[in-house]
Amino acid sequence: MKNYFSSQVLRKIVAVSVLAMPVTVAVAQTKSGDTKMDSFVSGLMTKMTLDEKIGQLNLVTSGRALTGSVVNKGVEESIKKGNIGGIFGVYGTDYISKAQDLAVKNSRLHIPLIFGLDVIHGHRTIFPIPLGMSATWDMGLIERSAKIAASEATGEGINWVFSPMVDIARDPRWGRISEGSGEDPYLGSQIAKAMVKGYQGTSMKNSDAVMACVKHFALYGGAEAGREYNTVDMSLIKMYQDYLPPYKAAVDAGAGSFMSSFNTINGVPATANQWLLTDVLRKQWGFKGFVVSDYTAVSELTAHGLGDLQTVSALALKAGLDMDMVAEGFLTTLKKSLKEGKVTQQEIDLACRRVLEAKYKLGLFDNPYKSINADVESKTELTETNRLAARETAEHSFVLLKNQGQILPLKKSGNIALIGPLADNHSEMLGTWVIAGDPNKSVSVIDGIKKVVGSNANILYARGSNFTDDSLLNARAWFFGMKQIRDTRPAQEMIDEAVETAKKADVVVAVVGESANMTGESASRSDINIPETQRDLLKALFKTGKPIVLVLFNGRPLTLTWENEHANAILDVWAPGTEAGNAVADVLFGNYNPAGKITATFPKNVGQVPIYYNHKNTGRPFDDKGPAKFKSDYIDVSNAPLFPFGYGLSYTTFNYSDVKLSKASLKGNETLTATVTVSNTGKLAGEEVVQLYVSDPVASISRSVKELKNFKKIMLQPGEQKEVSFNISTQDLKFYNTRLNYDWEPGQFIVEIGTNSSDVHSASVQWEK
Ligand code: BGC
Question: Is 272 exposed, middle or buried (0-12, 13-18, 19+ CB in 10 A)?
Answer without folding.
Answer: buried
